[in-house]
């Protein structure tokens, strides 16, 4: 290729002066032009073609092999179009080389066969990743920017000069935890900060994270922006504390760019961050200092005259030797301001340097006078921007100022829409050429300083309201056109909508601020699912509530859609705050909107979920039938997903598995990750209860992987909790605690989903019973906010177990007894059995007969509902009872079977919980261990040893007594099964046993006997 090829060489580490002298002598013997660079790390040689340079690199390597420090020698070769830029790039390549390496860029290695492809790497000049080749044979990983986690921006132009400032900043960052680069807009703060961060990246093992605050207008958005950059979760509430909780132990550099528009909020955030996070450093850019203790203020100077000239010439793309004086004058008169120089250089395709210099005369002089509203530090940059603006023709000016309405980036289609005229593409291209618009990865943006300037021009033209109307129309059209994707491919919807979140926010605000809010309301309805992403639910329900109340009396389909949107977001943010689902359902019924009615039935069912399972089921059943009638799979699956949760709570696992097979594939295929996470967690818990703990963990991991891309605090937190609980039950406690640690860091700042329940289980399995009690007590407290729901029942058996081991027997009995009552009231077979089992354990010593009744009822319930994993708990409890009642053979056989089953299932017992294994003298047995099923059958056969009669009313088990009572009331077998949550076949078996024990032949005789 044409251009120049640069060879740069130096030693890695500390080499002696004689070594460098020898290296210089060897380089002098090479062909090529030797350059003297003041800031160079070693010799630099320029060649006319790559082949000669590569040959020289081989020669230098061979010649240096016998010289001092030969093993430390690094060589880099790069081919570029201009000498200055090529030299800088070669030096950046040299910086990532290891001792003994000779590296080539792709341009230098073109056509060579005997080089090693090291893959794509990013140099510390912040350019795009590029392919690197090696001429030598070494094994060390390159010291590229990729070695440390980072999101540093890609710069499409070279970094010019400022080597002295970079060195000074590295020193500042090594001695100060907060360094703020200050200076006027366009002085190069952003570029210098990014370059400094890149050069220092190896000091921050947990990452260097770039946070652009240009589009942030409220202080509460700062932690959201930082969390997004770092890749952690925050949720509604005190976002700063949530973020701090996850960064407390990190050693990282956070770069906050463009702080000036929210300077006070940034200062407050940085104080909080650095107070709580001792190894987090901050590099900020702002037009003014943050003015907080410990801040090192570093004022960005103008480019030195030579650096300014180099920048102008490189951006212009030509040397212009005949215009050297004019270029020097431009650099001086623009005060060496990088942005001003780049704007001026953009005009070299239209004007000569002399014309550019002349164009600065009047404009520059005008804006250095006492102009109201323009700060002194802005006057020079304002002059250059104003001058550049006046050089635009009227059409270009109109397009330029209209682009100011965009927050963050935008697409070409969006630009066309707000400009509202023909020929936009051509004009837009000219603005890109003149560096007034930045093009990056298919999107565009205005530099913030330029955007502010354009915004002022837009207001002067009295066009802002009209242009924002056009912006609203465009984004409304985009959102409504994308709506079908919500039913077919939500991942694609997210990829389409998410990049323009800031623009959608702006359009929503404008649309809902107008006297006629129709378009704003339509946009809010179309975007409701967006608020389920990126932990923005609280913001979303605020916007949706605003949209709803702007036409509160309207009885329209749009109002129903808004109510649905509110309810779907509030589901995980504020489920009890506002009955949007109920109001929406009334409207949907009134309007005959069957699809919306089906979806809202599911959301109303969510509201009933905590207190009335059967009512919730009936609502979802209506919603399912309605959806199936209109052929709407998405609405059907929304209802089926809730039915899956209910079937799991009712422990109807066979029905559940069939329903999961129907609903899960469709949810995943459509990208409905939130609901898909829920059904995967349901499947995981079902597997864990039915002796498939290993598979349950795999499914829980799938659920977490499904939830994480949503960055939804509730879904991710719930999935982490489920997985951690299963890991604990399988004996992987360290992994469980590690999984929960990020959520534990947030415990003081947010309500973490199910945290008390999960940590109670983990603490119990760990053997920290007091901690388990403390975690669970607020949830099971009779006066807790959830006391009138099923939630306490879910936790009471575990809570009672922790109390019992902690020798709080009376409290344990009370808790277990309450658990029995609540579980029976809400129809929770597994929880009912767990509570019965725990209550029975508590009563073994003082009331063994009652304990036997409870333990056998628990065993029967578990057996009836296929809860095979928990059968192990029943066997251990019955072994403890047998041991206490002096039945050593029974105790030994049951205990041995339980221990074998635990090993087979991978199901560990909580540390410190009484188990038969604690009685080694009871474990001596010559017989082969019983299988799980054999042991259960054995336990049921040996029940007579307790002294229960074989016939008469006293011989009936508690479950048989319940069946008799319902049969006498006239309920059919299916109705009894539904009431007791057992199959109709099990009801038939129970009645057969009852008939035999009571000596009756049918229901009529049973009813007569009962009356007597």
Q: How many helices in DSSP terms?
A: 47
Strand order of the largest sheet: 2-3-1-4-5-7-6
Shape: elongated
State the end-to-end CA separation: 108 Å
Q: What would you call the structural class? A: alpha/beta
* Helical residue percent band: 55-70%
Structural features, described:
It is a single chain. By secondary structure, the protein is α/β, with parallel strands linked by helices. It is 59% helix and 7% strand. It has 47 helices and 14 strands. A 7-stranded mixed β-sheet has the order 2-3-1-4-5-7-6, with helices on both faces. A 5-stranded parallel β-sheet has the order 9-10-11-8-12, sandwiched between helices. A two-stranded antiparallel ribbon has the order 13-14. Helix 15 (394-402) packs across helix 18 (448-460), helix 30 (653-670) runs antiparallel to helix 31 (673-689) and helix 37 (791-805) packs antiparallel against helix 38. The termini are far apart. Mean pLDDT is 86; it is low at 362-380 and 918-925.
How is the secondary structure organized here?
Blueprint: E1 4-11, H1 17-28, E2 33-35, E3 44-47, H2 50-64, E4 73-80, H3 83-95, E5 102-105, H4 106-109, E6 116-121, E7 130-134, H5 163-175, E8 178-182, H6 189-199, E9 208-212, H7 221-230, H8 239-247, E10 252-257, H9 263-276, E11 280-286, E12 295-299, H10 305-316, H11 324-333, H12 338-345, H13 353-366, H14 379-390, H15 394-402, H16 412-419, H17 424-433, E13 438-440, E14 443-445, H18 448-460, H19 464-482, H20 485-488, H21 490-497, H22 501-513, H23 518-526, H24 537-549, H25 557-570, H26 580-591, H27 594-608, H28 613-630, H29 633-649, H30 653-670, H31 673-689, H32 693-707, H33 713-729, H34 733-744, H35 755-766, H36 769-780, H37 791-805, H38 809-826, H39 829-843, H40 848-864, H41 868-884, H42 888-905, H43 932-941, H44 958-968, H45 973-980, H46 984-998, H47 1003-1011
